[in-house]
Specification:
The complex is a heterodimer of chains A (about 525) and B (about 350). Chain A is an alpha/beta fold. Chain A is about 30% helix and about 20% strand. In chain A, helix 3 crosses helix 4, helix 3 packs parallel to helix 5 and helix 15 runs parallel beside helix 16. The two termini of chain A are about 15 Å apart. Chain B contains 15 helices and four strands. In chain B, the strands form two sheets. A two-stranded antiparallel sheet of chain B has the order 1-4. Chain B starts with a helix and ends with a helix. In chain B, about 45% of the residues are buried. The N terminus of chain B is likely disordered. The chains are: A alpha/beta (about 525), B mainly alpha (about 350).
């Protein structure tokens, strides 16, 4: 983690009283103040009277476990949801957005966790950066490609990042999409920037780029609300931490922030220090990769995976981690080399054959690889778990709800999924619980090889421990995990490899790994 | 802190969701199509004394509901899988041509029916292969088939001439198929009921239907989950064409003839009904019950406008306006529901 080594720019503690006059200076004052925000969905109270303040030049860490109310609060501030009660002041004026657009014009820029809706395949990156302007009524009807490129270049120059402007947005990786989202959000003269899990899909180098950008924005006087499950990020960036639990603020601390106390407040109990313990691995080789090349001129890969073993592959985005997993899953072909599963030649023509052979993949973006829309048949926990096994579980073709429900209930119990039942739709689950559903799906039948691509994306610490336990519990098959976060790899794997330029080598420590105790607690 | 209290804020009064209100709205949203159907019927019943008669309803069901419903069900399968089938019209025509042509050549009725279904199925397989093999979008693939179907009819039917069955050649079974009734209910309505039931079961109760819905929602998720996406797509277009073929056979049995390009008349109606049907239920995807209600609504609007004396040429304006109204209402309520 790159420590910025910067002291908080605000001189006084943010919790001290403000001058009683309303005409405060916008340069140093409270940018956003929320008071008594409450919101219920049906019988469920998501927020029960939340007070929150964020000041100019301050980075506020908003922490909270699964379902603590973070997303609801962000959605209210972003104008997506209307609160049931409470009031919000932005830059000294009452803030009652009727749409996300209202929130943007009031100066609140929000970058949501899912960057899917930032752009559309078929548009260039430059187009995606300018989408808001295109949508504006003041936009010219025709813009030359040069003008678009020039304006987009100005936006990213202002943000201090570089992006492939001519590239199709659909080809951008999650990291670049994230940068597009942020650059675009702040291009609209924002005074408050809300970031929801911005580093979830970023490698350390890219996260460092993002932190530089945020430090710069903070120096310019932006108020930043930063939501993340990565304590390392928060330790680097945050001036103050507010912890939500059960829809209420339970902890509010300024720098120096004691993250151990914050995490204890967040999950309601102290966190035991856990590290992937060394253990004996059976000699039985489940999966065998020999001289496999991802590209015609890349280094050959050799890999043996044993029964019950968890192997992690780290490395920056674009190193070929996802590609390797997808190729083993039959979505691509190796340029050369061979695969063996349980000693037999294995050459899947597609996911269907891979799954039939017992090789399963939980893809990087669970919404795009595992989930159906929540309002669709099959958009429930039960439907998600049964989808790959329809043929196997219902050989006569008739769906039987009770069979699906039983499998889902078993998964809910085993992984501790917090849901109203097997027919709960996926949108009612928090990120951590959603990821548990994905895992429950691929553990519903014993798999020989479980491939997990970034399994901790948008998963909080509480759920993370359950997921790690479930993954390490699998003693029959082998597990191969791709993660850009070497701490995650340390936490879960028996062996770790690093991938670079589509080649694999044993991991030999990493100078990017944090050594400070604060940052270290992320591993806990 | 003082800033907050001294600022002229008011709570979000207008936006506070009232529980009862939102439940009511949800029902309205879910069953809006049914309510529209009843509302329209009540309106026409008040405007015209003939509307609410058995004779009128029998006429609606037999003349403007049965065939459109069958074709709309075919369309629903394609729409449910995330595609569309513009060549239902082609399947209707080719089935009709094969059925009438083979009857005229002296084939027995069951053989002629099989010939009709087979001809229709060919268009479906052709569509399926275009879509899965050449990766052409369903819209363009079936549009191409629609054009090709026109030429095929011209080539096979002497430049696109009707083929009439003389009443001496018309088997009794065919007459019964079109005009017979059982327990007082016309036979075509049994056919509609049977096809609707089979399609409903297929979509809602089988793994095939679940897979098709998955493909319709997120093809990549379906593929990553190991579903045989291509095979299911071919089946969907095959079924869609075969069901349209049934409509083609019924149509020729009714008019004792093959009339070129007569399938086109049903195309827009079927698309309209299938998409109106997506507003039925909470979920917003194509479903059989919604489609049936959609066909009924379109039939009743057309019939009612005629009865109240609306100029026949303006009828389609009424139909179009209703489609707009229902879709606008449905989407507006859905947006509001998402915000509340």
């Amino acid at each position: 983690m790159t420590a910025t080594g910067e002291s908080p720019t605000t001189g006084e503690s943010p919790t001290t009283g403000e001058s009683p006059t309303t005409g405060e200076s916008p340069a140093t004052g409270v940018r956003l103040a929320a008071q008594g925000i409450a919101k219920s969905f049906g019988a469920t109270q998501a927020l029960g009277g939340v007070d929150l303040q964020v000041r100019s030049g301050e980075i506020l860490a908003l922490m909270g476990a699964n379902g603590a109310g973070k997303s609801t609060l962000v959605n209210i501030l972003a104008g997506v949801l209307a609160p049931d009660q409470g009031r919000i002041i932005v830059n000294g004026a009452a803030f009652q957005p009727r749409s996300p657009r209202d929130a943007v014009s009031a100066g609140i820029a929000t970058v949501h966790q899912s960057t899917d809706r930032i752009g559309v395949p078929g548009l260039t990156t430059a187009d995606a950066l300018l989408l808001d302007r295109f949508a504006s009524r003041r936009s010219a009807l025709f813009l030359s490609r040069r003008a678009v490129r020039r304006q987009a270049a100005a936006i990213i120059a202002r943000a201090g990042i570089s992006l492939p402007l001519a590239r199709d947005f659909g080809d951008l990786g999650p990291a670049d999409r994230q940068l597009v989202a942020i650059a675009r959000a702040i291009s609209a003269d924002a005074s408050v920037l809300i970031l929801d899990e911005p580093t979830a899909s970023l490698s350390q180098t890219e996260a460092a780029r993002l932190f530089d950008l945020l430090t710069g924005l903070k120096a310019r006087g932006l108020a930043i609300i930063y939501i993340s499950h990565r304590l390392g990020d928060l330790a680097t960036l945050a001036d103050r931490a507010v912890v939500l639990r059960g829809g209420r603020v339970v902890h509010d601390a300024a720098r120096p922030i004691d993250f151990t106390a914050a995490v204890t407040a967040m999950i309601g109990r102290p966190l035991a220090h856990a590290h992937a313990a060394a253990r004996d691995i059976a000699p039985e080789v489940v999966f065998h990769l020999r001289q496999a090349r991802l590209g015609a001129d890349t280094a050959p890969i050799d890999l043996d995976l044993h029964a019950g073993e968890v192997v992690a592959i780290t490395g920056p985005l674009g190193a070929g981690k996802s590609r390797l997993l997808k190729t083993i899953f039959g979505l691509h072909r190796f340029a050369s080399g061979k695969m063996e599963l349980d000693g037999r030649r294995y050459m899947p023509g597609g996911p269907a054959q891979a799954i039939a052979a017992g090789v399963v993949l939980a893809g990087e973006d669970r919404h795009r690889t595992s989930f159906l829309p929540a309002d669709w048949p099959g958009g429930t926990i039960a439907g998600t778990i049964s989808l790959p096994y329809l043929q196997r579980w219902f050989p006569h073709g008739w769906l039987r709800r009770e069979v699906e429900d039983r499998a889902a209930e078993a998964g809910i119990r085993r992984l501790g999924i917090r849901a109203s039942g097997p027919r709960a739709t996926l949108d009612t689950l928090s990120g951590g619980n959603q990821q548990k559903v994905v895992l429950a799906r691929w553990q519903a039948e014993p798999a020989r090889l479980l491939l997990l691509d970034e399994p901790f994306q948008g998963v909080d610490i509480g759920a993370r421990a359950d997921i790690i336990a479930a993954i390490r519990d699998n003693r029959l098959g082998a597990t191969l995990i791709a993660t850009s976060d070497s701490e995650e790899a340390l936490e879960i794997a028996d062996r770790i490899f690093t991938m670079e330029h589509h080649g694999l080598r044993p991991w030999a420590g990493d100078n990017l790994l944090p050594t400070t105790p604060t940052a270290r607690s992320e591993v806990a | 802190m003082t800033v907050i209290t001294s600022s002229p804020t008011s709570p979000h009064q207008g936006q506070r969701p009232d529980r009862r209100d939102s439940t009511f709205r949800r029902y309205l949203l879910q069953y809006g199509l049914l309510i529209a159907l009843l509302g329209v019927s009540a309106f026409f019943a008040a405007m015209s004394p003939t509307f609410l008669t058995t004779a009128n309803f029998a006429s609606i069901l037999v003349n403007s509901f049965a065939l459109p419903a069958i074709i709309a069900i075919a369309m629903t399968l394609a729409v449910g899988s995330g595609g569309i089938d513009l060549s239902v019209a082609t399947a209707v025509d080719l089935a009709s041509l094969a059925f009438v042509g083979t009857l005229a050549a002296g084939w027995p009725v069951p053989g002629a029916i099989l010939a009709g279904l087979g001809a229709a199925a060919l268009t479906g397989i052709f569509n399926g292969l275009l879509i899965t093999g050449l990766n052409i979008t369903p819209f363009l693939a079936t549009l191409g088939t629609l054009f090709i179907g026109r030429s095929v009819q011209q080539v096979l039917a002497n430049g696109g001439n009707p083929v009439y069955l003389s009443s001496s050649k018309l088997p009794a079974a065919v007459k019964f198929l079109a005009h017979g009734s059982f327990l007082g209910v016309p036979l075509p309505l049994y056919v509609v009921g049977f096809i609707a039931l089979v399609a409903f079961i297929l979509l809602e109760l089988t793994i095939f239907g679940r897979g098709v819905r998955a493909i319709g929602a997120r093809p990549q998720v379906a593929y990553f989950s190991g579903l045989r996406v291509r095979r299911d797509i071919v089946w969907i277009y095959l079924l869609s064409a075969a069901i349209s073929g049934v409509a083609g056979i019924l149509l020729s049995a009714t008019v004792s003839a093959y009339i070129p390009y007569s399938g086109n008349a049903f195309l827009l109606n079927a698309i309209g009904a299938a998409f109106i049907g997506t507003t039925f239920g909470a979920r917003g995807h194509a479903n059989i019950i919604g489609t049936i209600l959609g066909v009924l609504l379109l039939a009743i609007v057309a019939n009612g406008l005629l009865l109240v004396g609306w100029n026949f040429y303006w009828q389609q304006v009424g139909t179009g306006a209703f489609i707009f109204l229902i879709l606008a209402f449905s989407f507006a309520s859905k947006r509001r529901q998402q915000r509340a």
